[in-house]
Amino acid sequence: MELQVIEVMLNSQDLARVPLGGHEGIAARLREALAAVGLGTVTGTSAGGGVAIIDVSVPKDRVPEALGFLKQQLRLCGAPRTTVLSVDDTEVPLGGDEPWGKRTSRPD
Predict the structure, then answer these.
(1) Does this model's pTM top 0.70?
(2) What is the CATH number of the domain that holds 62?
């Protein structure tokens, strides 16, 4: 089974304004939710340069499903709307409804 990494990128300043326990708190919530549905796993976290990143590994053939699930879970836990999910060269904003595989409206 081939895996795909989805990066959950959180703006550190926005993250500091919400009581979620930082990116580690969000990673713990995502870890539990992903395990409950057997969709993937959190494989790492990092922070620096104003960005916190949570790496999520999912089966490559389930990426569209995983993106929808991650967006839902991030919204439920109150993650900042500036959060972006990154898959390869495609960014999917949490605050937007643009589907995976299409260029986002975010400036380069």
Answers:
(1) yes
(2) 3.30.70.120
